[in-house]
Write a structure and sequence with these properties.
Blueprint (H helix, E strand, L loop, with lengths): L2 H8 L4 H6 L7 E7 L4 H6 L19 H4 L4 H8 L3 H8 L1 E3 L6 E4 L7 H10 L20 H6 L8 E5 L4 H4 L2 H4 L3 E3 L11 H12 L10 H15 L3 E6 L1 H7 L3 H23 L8 E6 L26 E4 L7 E2 L4 E4 L3 H8 L19
Parallel strand pairs: 1-6, 1-7, 2-9, 3-10, 4-5, 4-6
Antiparallel strand pairs: 2-8, 7-8
Helix pairs in contact: 11-12, 13-14
Pfam families: Metalloenzyme
GO molecular function: catalytic activity; metal ion binding
Protein name: Phosphoglycerate mutase
Length: about 350
């Protein structure tokens, strides 16, 4: 029995019916990633080991009013209110290992470029994708496959906070416009908002050399979506991972809450725009996990336990409202690529890609 059939059985669905049903309502995909957000915070909110550690926050006690409650279900609502209202009520959330529901990476590198390659291509490639170097991806991403189709040509766009995304997506070969790192909005007809974002990005560079602050990524994406109405949008937010690497748990939590507000803005725009309303699926995930102890949480990789553990969420017209999936099951971020194509009613052209996450499908 293959993995798709097993997962369908776990979730009480009919394998035959799922395969027979090819018609979908999804016409557009918003694929959203956030770098290095642990499943522990996603499902349980602020970590009791870290939330008042003076070595990890600027002011002792400063996080408690905004992020702390004894009940982890309330803590997670405090941290990610949109996720634990709209997404939890109308979507699907995978990866709470307390229920035996596991979401994992297949690659053995367990850091960003290999993680994004796996999400975007449907398969790990540890032989060739084994560093974060700015080298063009030899693999073809799901974005590029769609860009090559007449109905999607010119309607695929990508945005990212990390300046390596143009190489992961292989902007040069694929022809997909990628606004990432410190790229500005370009063109002859920039909106006043884009002109202002360009100016502000030039004046506020943030604390990292290769990663801009997420507000710039988000608002560049929002303006482009409003102006050009793409059918496939990829947005890669980055702040949580970089704050974590700096051992700043306070800023890590603030960036997660900000990310959640961006998801809310994206979904509300989708649901109030005729081109997107009831025709768009949003899939959200992360590129890797990270350590769980004070000495390891700042890092991730093959040498740090739990770095393989991630989470996945989805919401859209073809995805049953399962909420937080509590059945024992195993999913992988590598399943996302084929899932995207099946939601669009298409066959994924890469045979090596993992199976789809069957429960996201109608």
């Amino acid at each position: 029995m293959n993995k798709t059939a097993l997962l369908l059985m776990v979730l009480g669905l009919s394998y035959g019916m799922a395969i027979a049903q090819k018609a979908t309502k999804t016409e557009n995909i918003f694929l959203i990633t956030v770098d290095g957000l642990r499943w522990q915070e996603f499902f349980k909110g602020a970590d009791s080991l870290f939330v008042d550690d003076t070595g990890m926050i600027k002011d002792q006690g400063s996080l408690l009013p905004e992020f702390w409650h004894q009940d982890p279900l309330k803590r997670r609502q405090m941290l990610m209110p949109f996720t634990w209202s709209t997404l939890a009520e109308k979507g699907q959330l995978y990866g709470n290992r307390a229920f035996g529901n596991k979401a994992d990476l297949r690659n053995d590198m367990l850091f960003s470029y290999p993680g994004y390659n796996e999400i975007l291509t449907g398969a790990p490639d540890d032989e060739r994708i084994n560093s974060n170097a700015k080298t063009n991806n030899p693999n073809t991403t799901l974005l590029e496959h769609l860009q090559q189709m007449p109905e999607f040509e010119g309607k695929v766009m990508a945005f990212g906070s990390w300046d390596v995304f143009p190489y992961i997506i292989n902007e040069e070969r694929s022809g997909i416009p990628v606004n990432a790192g410190f790229d500005k909005a370009e063109g002859a007809n920039l909106s006043p908002a884009e002109q202002m974002i360009n100016r502000m990005q030039a004046e506020i560079r943030g604390p990292w050399g290769g990663v801009r602050l997420d507000p710039f990524t988000h608002h560049y994406a929002m303006e482009a979506i409003r102006k050009q109405a793409p059918r496939l949008v990829f947005i890669g937010y980055g702040e949580p991972d970089d704050w974590a690497h700096g051992n700043r748990y306070d800023e890590y939590l603030h960036s997660i809450k900000q990310f959640d507000s961006y998801l809310k803005e994206l979904w509300e725009y989708i649901q109030t725009t005729p081109q997107y309303k009831d025709k768009t699926t949003m899939i959200i995930t992360t590129d890797h996990g990270r350590g769980v102890e004070k000495r390891t949480w700042t890092g991730h990789g093959a040498g740090i336990p739990r770095s393989r553990e991630v989470w996945i969420a989805a919401i859209g017209p073809d995805s049953p409202a399962l909420g937080e999936v509590k059945q024992e099951a195993q999913v992988y971020t590598a399943m996302i690529a084929r899932t995207v194509f099946q939601l669009l009613g298409l066959s994924y052209p890469e045979e090596k890609a993992d199976d789809a996450i069957a429960s996201i499908l109608p």
